[in-house]
Amino acid sequence: PGGTTKTRRPDNTAFKQQRLPAWQPFLTAGTVLPTFFIIGLIFIPIGIGIFVTSNNIREIEIDYTGIEPSSPCNKCLSPVETPCICTINFTLEKSFEGNVFMYYGLSNFYQNHRRYVKSRDDSQLNGDRSALLNPSKECEPYRRNEDKPIAPCGAIANSMFNDTLELFLVANESDPTLMLIPLKRRGIAWWTDKNVKFRNPPGTESLKERFKDTTHPVNWLKPVYELDPEDEDNNGFINEDFIVWMRTAALPTFRKLYRLIERKNDLHPTLPAGRYYLNITYNYPVHSFDGRKRMILSTVSWMGGKNPFLGIAYITIGSISFLLGVVLLVINHKYRNSSNTADITI
Amino acid sequence: MSRSWLLCGMKPLQGSTHFSLGNQKVEKRMGCQQSLQSSEVLKVRTIYINDPLKNTFCTNSISTTKYSKWSFLPRYLYLQFSKAANAFFLFITILQQIPGVSPIGQYTTLLPLLVILAISGIKEVVEDYKRYMADKVVNSKTTSVFRQNSWHVIKWHEVNVGDIVKTLNEEFLPADMILISSSEPQSMCYVATANLDGETNLKIRQASLEVAGIIKEGQLVNLDGKIECEEPDRQFNNFVGTLYLRGKSPISVGPDQMLLRGTQLKNTQWIIGVVIYTGFETKLMQNSVKSPLKRSQVEKVTNMQILILLLLLFVISAVSCVGATIWNKMYLENIWYMGISGITPHNHVFDILVFIILYHNLVPISLLLTLETVKFIQAQFINWDEDMHYEQNDLYAMARTSNLNEELGQVKYLFSDKTGTLTCNTMAFKKCTIAGIIYGNHSDNTDDGNENLSRASFCEFNDPKLLENFEDGHPSSEYIKEFLTLLCVCHTVIPERCGNDILYQASSPDEAALVKGAKKLGFVFTTRTPYSVTIEVMTETHTFEILNILEFSSNRKRMSIIVRTPAGHLRLYCKGADTVIYERLSKDSLFVEDTLKHLEIFATEGLRTLCIAYTDLTETEYQDWLQEYKKASAVSQNRIQRLEECYEIIEKEFLLLGATAIEDRLQANVPETISTLLKANIKIWVLTGDKQETAVNIAFSCKLISSTTPRIYLNADSFEAAQQTINHNCGDLGNLLGKENDLALIIDGETLKYALRFEIQKKFLDLALSCRAVLCCRLSPLQKAEIVDLVKKHEEAITLAVGDGANDVGMIRMAHVGVGISGNEGMQATNNSDYSIAQFRYLEKLLLVHGTWNYFRVTKCILYSFYKNVVLYIIGLWFSFVNGFSGQIIFEHWCISLYNVIFTSLPPLTLGIFEKCCSQKSLLEYPQLYTVFQTGEMFNTKVFWIQCINALIHSFILFWFPTKMLEHDMILRHGYTTDYLFLGNFIYSYVVVTVCLKAGLETTSWNRFSHVAIWGSIISWILFFSVYSFFWPIFSVAPEMTGQINMVLSCPHFWMGFLLVPTTCLIQNFFWKLIKNTYKRGLLEEIQELESRKDSILEHSEIFEKRMTAASLAVSFSTQPCEIFFRDDSVDLSAPHGYAFSQTEGAVVTQEELVRAYDTAKMENSRISKRSSDFSEIF
Questions:
Q1: Neighbours of B211 (CB within 10 A)
Q2: Residues A309, A185 share a domain
Q3: Distance (Å, rounded) from C-alpha B399 to C-alpha B380?
Q4: Which A-chain residues 15-74 have CB contacts (< 8 A) with chain B?
Q5: Where this protein primarily resides, as one coarse class (chain A) (predicted)?
Q6: Rounded Cα gap, residues B703 and B1015, in angstroms
Q7: Which domain holds residue A321?
Q8: DSSP B940
């Protein structure tokens, strides 16, 4: 019988007998009260730090939709005038130092709408030849035009932002010569997008050859391989303006990076305080859906652009934690006095 | 309608419908060839003896498996998809295949669903295989069958109807048979039916003497004929048949010739029978219905919540759909960039489907699988538990189902069988009082620990003082001699010489115990001839001539025997209940007071007492009486009554000798277990088929009731009487009705039949619930089930039934949890139970430790699973508010569907498997802890929705904090702007972290697996995220994920939020937990704290004790003696009587006939030859 007992007997391990060593923390006000204060003490300084950093960032936002009749761009609201060029002037109170980033911002623009988000063909954008000529069904109704496949297909590409923004510094109040601020077109897209995700169709021929048998999106004036007239390497699917646009924003109010204004090597600020002209080639219609267009200039800190939320959140949570700590302390004190049993003592 | 339906339908009792339904199921399942050739009206089965070709009935193999090879897939799928949740996910999967509907891809629900189906499929196969193996063991037991003129040993499943089967002593019968011959005189045999009806005494069966005669004369080969009998039914005591032997007149056979499958042959060398019913058609199997699917309370609540959640899902979808309609009206026409103008807008049905798919994961798809896994492992823990390992039989506890694990933690009513569950079903002569001196009193105290069991089996009566007094000529020496002589003479036991030893066979275990006890004391009963018994005292033989046997019956409560002593005197020996003996004592009788006192002591200990008395008769007195007796015997009407009246005449003027005390041995630690369970606020009801006296004795001996407990006896013979007694008692209780009082209620089966009538059942239940202990005696299996059903229906409480025999099957099935005691040979109870244990005492660990833990674990696991799903998937709703209710999701498809499969699959598992509310030691030491869980406050609708609201708040924070953080898009050092998925990945990461940390906050017992699960899950997400971001364009999935990892991890905002967002979510939970642990603590928290400071237990134990007692007072029953004034005479406030005696009554063979039938002096030689020649004589 000994042999049979052995075979039937499960091995008597700690796991099977549920005797695994375990740590049984028991949280009471007495033991973990300091945690609240520690959280408070850590969060509040972090919050203040972030808040200050965010406040130090220079940012200016110019709405150029032209809704107000007084706005120079008001004339461009009527579809008659094409192309429409308007100029808005503004003043920088303080100079912008370091690299300055130029954004365009759209409001009430639902880039996150499901139909919009899916209306693209990533294989096509990745340079896949078959997808180039036969885009995905998701692109409907911007899949084919006049029997030719659209490249790039889909609603996202079709609605690409096509205003041109130029920035001029009024160098001297008395002397109205305008100094064009050099705007860098490259280096605005993620490295992976530019090098991995977006690729032109393979081949050694010219881009035009490679895109033959395709047509440009309905709303575009020029084909995808002519997006950047100045820089041959910034054309086709790897055009950086295009790539930036193709990352659809999370919220209906969003910004997209437009241009870089690199810091100068000398001691002058990148954008000195003073008057500026913003020259807009107004193509992009947002009026129909009550949208707004903005141009934003901003410097960045180690943690990006201006956004006071995080700092305030940290300070608030830190304070709440501190407050909870105090509440616990008070209750604890009262409870200990009123209770006959001494079981809270550590 | 076959006969069995009719019988069931005729029963006026409630439960019968239930059983007959089950019966139909069985019949359907059998699928064997019923003898349909017989006409519809007669329903007669004709069996041709030993002619297998002519008999086409069901085979004797039984199968309890759920599936067969071919039925597996369809049946399994059917079962799976009949679960609401699975059907729902199937529905979602199908919806996802409609092009354009699914916002989250086509196969994202199908894959997890397939995984889940595959895993639970494997589990089903394994479980069914186990069942198949168990059946195989039963089916391949062997027996001897007479075929082709010789005996063949074949397996049980090869036994056919019409076969002639031989069964040896102690063997189980393989099928229902008609007894045609046996080794015993007059073709008698004894069978133990405890397995079927729970009765302790053996039953006597006797073959028709005509048949037996034929077989003795001829040989089995010539046995040719047929049996006509009724179709199989479920009534154990119903059978009508006729045996036609070739060339003989028909012989009618009835239940007395019937041997049933599941019974065991006792005290009989061999029997030969003809098989009449096999396999599923046996009475035993007819009584076994497929276990109803039991669902635990927790599961029911969960299902309810799932339904509400589904409803909520539809509401959210509808709201989103309305939102979409409004948004589309307001914006869509003017939005040129979407290219809508070319496409017709979707209709509402389409929209609502989109949203249902979008939010469908609110119902956790993994919950069912997680729970199955968790419960499976919990069941394994029960199976593995060494503390529930009964080493003598090498039996482990076994969880036969894993559905009810958590139910074990909430039991409120425990229904226990007596025989074989509380007791070992062995009787031992333990104590006695002779001539006012008590013997055998000291032996108890030395019993301890492990020795207890091994010693107890030998430790019967061993008080050397008795023999000393006898031999040393103590004044009481004569009485002792008379007392022991009486024990040796006054009984119906048959001695059987086995080598040098003598074995006693008796249908009454009490008598066997007494005779054995006397033998140990040197009074050996050696020989019985039809008219005498011979005993050996100190090498001298005395032969008593037996003149008359005045039979035992439960009305008379005594049996007497009139003998002529060796000296030639006429003497009447009597043993019986104290009440009846004391009525008949002569004035000269001595020791009356002392004995009464001793009887009380015995009774309080729960021993079965019998008073022993004798009287000397004069020759004339006897002769006169004998005339009367002969007259009475000759009467044909009311003979039994006349005989009893006649007995009454001579049974008088008794001289008291003393009393015996027999121990109906309890299983180990039964009283301790019962007291622990009572402390845990579990009410214990004893339901037994045995006699009232026996039940009361056991209640005393297992300390369920004490000698001061008033006992309410409900014994009525009419509905009116029962109603009156119940009403009276309810009235007497007054305000105390419904509260727990130190009372015991004792009711018998007959009265229960009235008490369960609809008009008074509520009253009866109220009365029963007001008593601390309830004993129900003389119950049929069906009544046991009915009582359980009654409590189950009227009380919102979990019931547990524990039993070991086939008669307990009904209640085991009926109760929320059925526990079978395994180890006794019959497997009926075990096979129908949800859990099987080897000993009653293991219930303590099963309920208090496993039950509590499992309940704690399962509820935490469920709550947490819902929490984590609501947190993630309600984010879709928040996002809908900013994306124009378009159904766009903010996460990547596969990330979403892997959420439940990988990233957060482990924490619910560790919560469900390893979580402990407190240690085993504490749970066993403070049974009061059980009440914390019993009330179900850990898990109910309120708790559930609090958790859901908590999840809602978390998801709100988890969505809006990162959204606000990224509001201005400029969050990267190089000024890059981002997309929706960037935000999605932020949120997703925070969700995973928060949800895992929340699991950490829920975990009270951290072992290494908890650490792996919690930290590992967070790491697994980060790892997956890293790898997944590089999939495109190598694999054509997730182009939008490309490059996300670099940008997310290098974004300072991400790390800032990493600290902030989970903290914000959890700080409130943390705070509430502190408040709960510190200021609103209950018993559980006290103990948890105590355990967390193991080093300082000593200083605290005193305070702790104080608090514990305070806390336990609130939950435990009041132990003060009852101050109620009872007017009804059904209430017995007196000291307990210990009388109990089991004996076969009203059997085929009367006790007198039985005794007269044996002549062991003659039989000696013939028996030996019988055994050695192996039945040769009957060929």
A1: 23
A2: no
A3: 8
A4: 16-18, 20-30, 32, 35, 39, 43, 46, 50
A5: membrane
A6: 51
A7: 31-57+305-330
A8: S
| End-to-end CA, chain A | 54
**Closest CB from A4, A248, A288 relative to B979:** A248
Q: Please tell me whether residues A115 and A202 are part of one structural domain.
A: yes
Q: Using alpha carbons only, how large is chain A's radius of gyration in Å? A: 30
What does the block give as tokens for B227? 């049996």
Roughly how many angstroms between the first and final C-alpha of chain B, as a whole number? 43
pLDDT beyond 80 at A278: yes
CB contact A130 to B (< 8 Å): no
Residue numbers in B near A115 (CB within 8 A): 338, 340, 886
Structural domain contains residue A188: yes
**Rounded Cα distance, B978 and B981, in Å:** 8
Percent of chain B residues topping a pLDDT of 90: 22
* Total tally of structural domains belonging to chain A: 2
B174-B178-B182 Cα angle (round to 5): 85
Which residues on A lie below 8 Å from B1053 (Cβ)?
Answer: 303-304, 310
Is residue B588 annotated as a catalytic residue, yes or no?
no
Helix axes B906-914, B852-873, angle to 10 degrees: 160
On whether residue A259 sits in a domain, the answer given is no
Shared domain check, A194 and A147: yes
Single-letter residue type at B555? N
Residue B444, both tokens = 């108890």
Contact with chain A for residue B967, Cβ under 8 A:
yes
CB B656 within 8 A of CB B576: no
Instruction: Tell me whether strands B423-434 and B437-439 are parallel, antiparallel or unpaired.
Output: antiparallel
| Type of residue at A262 | E
Query: What is the C-alpha to C-alpha distance for residues B988 and B1020, in angstroms, rounded to an integer?
Result: 13
State the DSSP code for A264: P
Phi, psi dihedral angles at B658 (to 5 degrees): 165, -155
B chain contacts of residue A326, beta-carbon cutoff 8 Å: none
Confidence of residue B1109 (pLDDT cuts 50, 70, 90): low
Torsion over CA of A9, A11, A13 and A15, rounded to 10 degrees?
-80
Instruction: Let me know whether A86 and A46 are in one domain.
Output: no
C-alpha distances out from residue B771 to B114, B452, B675, Å: 53, 32, 16
Asked if residue A288 and residue A206 are part of one domain, the reply reads: yes
If you write DSSP's letter for every residue of B1115-1131 in order, what string do you get? HSPP-SPP-----STTE
Reported ipTM: 0.94
Q: Is A249 on the interface with B (CB under 8 A)?
A: yes
Q: What is the pLDDT of residues B820-860, one digit of tens each?
A: 988 665 667 787 788 999 999 999 999 999 999 999 999 99
The string over B49-58, giving b where at least 16 C-beta atoms fall within 10 Å of a residue's C-beta and e elsewhere, is bbeeeebebb
Vertex B681: Cα angle to B679 and B684 (nearest 5): 95
Name the residue with tokens 């339906």. Answer: B5
Secondary element (H or E) of residue B429: strand B423-434
| Residue B239 burial (CB count, 10 A) | 22
Per residue in B610-629, is it b (16+ CB within 10 Å) or e — as a string? bbbbbbebeeebbeebeebb
Q: Do A151 and A194 lie in a common domain? A: yes
In a domain, A155, yes or no: yes
Q: Do A193 and B1043 touch (CB under 8 A)?
A: yes
Q: Give the pTM.
A: 0.84
Cis amide leading into A83 (omega within 30): yes
In this structure, are A126 and A226 located in the same domain?
yes
Model confidence at A23, pLDDT cuts 50, 70, 90, reads: confident
For residue A324, list chain B residues with Cβ-Cβ distance below 8 A: 1067, 1071
- The reply to whether A17 falls in a domain is no
Q: Which of A117, A196, A125 is nearest to B1030 (CA)?
A: A196
